[in-house]
Amino acid sequence: MPRASWAFIANLQIAYPTIEEQTAIANYLDRKTVEIDTLIAQKERLIALYEEEKAAIINQAVTKGIDSAVGVPLVGTLEQGNHKGLPLRDSGIDWLGEIPAGWKVKKLKYLSLILRGKFAHRPRNDERLYGGIYPFIQTGEVTNANKFIKGYRQTLNEAGYAVSQEFPSGTLVMTIAANIGDVAILSFDACFPDSIVGFYPKNEVIVDFLYYKLISIRSNLIGCATQNTQQNLNIDRISPIEISFPNNKTVQTAIVHHIETETTRIDAKIAKTQRIIELQKEYRTALISEVVTGKIKVPS
Question: What distance in Å separates the CA atoms of residue 294 and residue 15, rounded to the nearest whole number?
């Protein structure tokens, strides 16, 4: 690799302004960068509020339902325009509270088959098990997915496949270690380790509704985790968790459609705001460069 000697660097000549001009430049850049950083902070807070709005939409829809006639959430007996929400009943479960009168409550183990991933070999990073044809996902792919897992970074060969377990495309997966409670849906057949579980909904719920339901109860899942060197969940702790759901798959589908319509609208706002942040950061860098090289004259 080419290197410059210390003698060469020491003898480089650079142009620089007077002390008065340097002070003016520093003061100008301090003022301008504070303005830019303040705007960036405001936009980042706006994104956080958008994310909170998305979470509220999901939670409201999967716990209180929606008015399919007008596409708005049902909120007990509170009026939404000229429409009233469904009557509510006590679920009998403290953390669930009131639920729509026509909805059911069941334990997850009765609504879905739950299977744990597998990777029996130790050490996990043994290179002899990788580099084959079988996709192998880990918790990072689940955490970073936007509902659907569409890609993977690792593959297993025949030896790796023999110590793991393959799950089919369409499986709802959830992390039970590291980032507990992150969920996604497989878009391809894949193997995964025991830090992930797979859900196969039975006849009463559709996979998309269960996906959003699990998102809404993430804090409860975290609360069920064991406390060791890091938090962990297992099937025994997940299985008895009770959830509410409408006893009609058409209603479940309508709820999913409502959620995705509303969150897509918000995601567009988030993307626009993120672009503004990127442009402001680029402007900040360019401004500093232009000013300190004299391409922009700073007023005295």
Answer: 10
Give the number of other CB atoms < 10 A from CB of residue 126. Answer: 12
Q: Are strands 148-149 and 183-186 parallel, antiparallel or unpaired?
A: parallel
In the chain, the percentage of residues whose pLDDT exceeds 90 is 72
Question: Could you give the residue range(s) of every CATH 1.10.287 domain in the chain?
Answer: 18-74+247-300
Return all residues near 246 (Cβ < 8 A) that are at least 6 apart: 65, 100, 102, 103, 104, 252, 255
Alpha carbon distance 217, 48 (integer Å): 19
Rounded Cα distance, 86 and 80, in Å: 11
**HSE-CB for 56 with a 13 A CA cutoff:** 10
What is the C-alpha separation between 47 and 267, in angstroms, rounded?
9
Give per-residue pLDDT as tens, 20-51: 999 999 999 999 999 999 999 999 999 999 99
Region for residue 170 given its phi and psi (left: phi exceeds 0; alpha: psi -120 to 50; beta: otherwise) = left
pLDDT at 190: 98
Per DSSP, the three-state class of 86 is coil
List where CATH 3.90.220.20 sits in the chain.
Answer: 104-243
**CATH code at 104-243:** 3.90.220.20
Q: Which CATH class is domain 18-74+247-300?
A: mainly alpha
| pLDDT band (50, 70, 90) for residue 210 | very high
